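Records of this kind hold a single protein each, on a pair of labelled lines. With that in mind, the following record should read easily:
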Amino acid sequence: MALAETQTDVKTFTAAELYQRIVADTPTFIVDVRNEEDFGRWGVEGRNSLEVINVPYFDFIEDEDGSVAKVPADRNEVLVVCAKEGSSQFVAEILQSHGITARFLEGGINTWGNLYDVRPVESNAYGQIIQVARPARGDLSFVVVSQGQAAVIDPLRHIDHYLNVLNTHQAQLTHIFDTHAHADHISGGPALARKTGGRYFMHAYDAIHPLDMLPARIDYNHIVDGQKFQVGHYTIEVIWFPGHTLGQVNYLFTDPDGKSCLFTGDGIFLKSFGRPDLGGRGEAWAPIVYDSIYNRLPPRINKDTLILPAHFSVMNEDNGQGVFAETYEWVLAHNDALKYAQKQDFLDFVLSHLPKFPPEYVEIKRANAGLLIPDEEKASELELGKNICALSD
């Protein structure tokens, strides 16, 4: 069937609409028409009610009826996804010509990859905590606002989202905290500092590229274990947590009533923790992770401390409303990766659960050290796909 014969009134859907369906766990059926290799690298992931199948675009051209037959006819609606939009529109038109209600993703898969979601974590008399997420990558960052001041923790590359939050809350950005030199995404910290005048902080151990052994060429303020800051009503304490990187730190925010939240970066996630091999020294750094998890951290926090990590692996880690935060007590009870209290058992577990080492991560670390200045196209290419900073199952 030629394209001219399949023209129907197909409508689009947006990446933001798709994410709201995923958060609400609305039954959703997606046909991804990219080639098998691209589909295998990354795609749309969600909760139990999301179903995704791959039927490449060229299959619809070569065998239209056979390809349409792979799409269950009992679905109320089919959402079609491709790389740049054109192929998914073509397939959606074919499906509608066969009596299947279909829409296609506006802008293609890259709009999903570049989607940011901003939502509140909590609000109280002392301030607000706002989560800024990039769902397709499993990336999380946060803005804390109090008394007209603000801190951003682990800012992602596209800084306009943080500027919008600051403008909404009429807050001045005073502190920009990176928990570590990230390997999976390019930090927005230096750019935010240049734009707002806020001070950018990271640990000096992470200002040296772990493989190149070259010093960073960025402006930053060195932090140390136990150092304290003030943002509005919140007191902030730095907790050095080496292992994922040698300069990985946690930031403990405490309000005047003693209620605390811990921004853990890639230290501890809700269901896992940060892999130790991205500096090329997995066997040497795994014991350091053990010491951080079992010895360094516990004396500094309590069971009610809210854990806010820099990543999630699956959507089901959220609280059912798109927020990724749980108490330390909950994490200890539900994070199976933390059940290996004996050191040798822990090391055996870690070293047997390391995912592949993405070569792009070496380049991203160079970018975060200012040793490489990628343009937008190159930056998007480096960040393509979901982060794999945690141990794998």
Summary: The CA atoms of residues 56 and 361 lie 29 Å apart. Residues 282-296 form the longest helix (15 residues). The radius of gyration is 22 Å. The longest strand covers residues 117-124.
